[in-house]
Amino acid sequence: MSxxxxxxxxxxxxxxxxxxxxxxxLLLPNAWDAATARAVVAAxxxxxxxxxxxxxxxxGHEDHEGAPPAEMLAAxxxxxxxxxxxxxxxxxxxxxxxxxxxxxxxREAGAxxxxxxxxxxxxxxxxxxxxxxxxxxxxxxxxxxxxxxxVINARIDVFLPAALAGSPEGVQAGLLAEGLERARRYxxxxxxxxxxxxxxxxxALAAFVRETPGPxxxxxxxxxxxxxxxxxxxxxxxxxxxxxxxxAMARFARDLGTLAAAVPPT
Length: 266
Prior knowledge:
Layout (H helix, E strand, L loop, with lengths): L4 H14 L7 E3 L5 H9 L5 E2 L2 H7 L10 H14 L4 E4 L8 H11 L3 E5 L1 E2 L4 E2 L2 H17 L5 E6 L3 H5 L11 H13 L4 E4 L5 H10 L5 E3 L7 H7 L3 E3 L3 H20 L4
Parallel strand pairs: 1-10, 2-3, 3-4, 4-7, 7-8, 9-10
Antiparallel strand pairs: 5-6
Helix pairs in contact: 2-4, 4-5, 5-6
């Protein structure tokens, strides 16, 4: 009798969920293809996370759902097949898919978890909270009905515009109430973890972690506290997003420049 292929996936889902420990954060250096995913595991990290920006760039597309969903999901499946470790997939804002279809696609790909963000790429703003809560609840319901322990990391984009604008410290603190309200509602809707992406102000970040009734994922921005400091604040997960992909591509460009200077292309 052949083994049930879902058994291994459920084991990976459970492993990913149990690694979310406040004060002892899961470190996630995000990968963008099978080779980088294997490198993450070879370095000793227990989980692979993907970066939509890196995956989209490798496929020749822009981030923020600029790539065809089928291509992104196929890339996720290749990454999942390439490693014997849980993989959490950056599924952006769900690609406009209905919850049941999205859950089925993630399960088919072999994803143990996923990021789902509340940014609205069509409008450039945020999804209305009640609408996003209902959508997250439907995603959780679809996964539960399928017997699929998908670990949902609900990304909160409230703090992102200020960070991208290079706003001084103090601006994000004024957004804390809205961020916390969304975090509580997303957790209540079935999310396992919340991700206030680009929240870096130490005081606001400490308050967010302290007042959120569930695990918190923090992006390791250069301006953010160090991973050790984030652990002390009670973070349960620290990820690197597109940072490693950008560094790798910058290094590649520098090396190409050195080669071109030494041996000019004919």
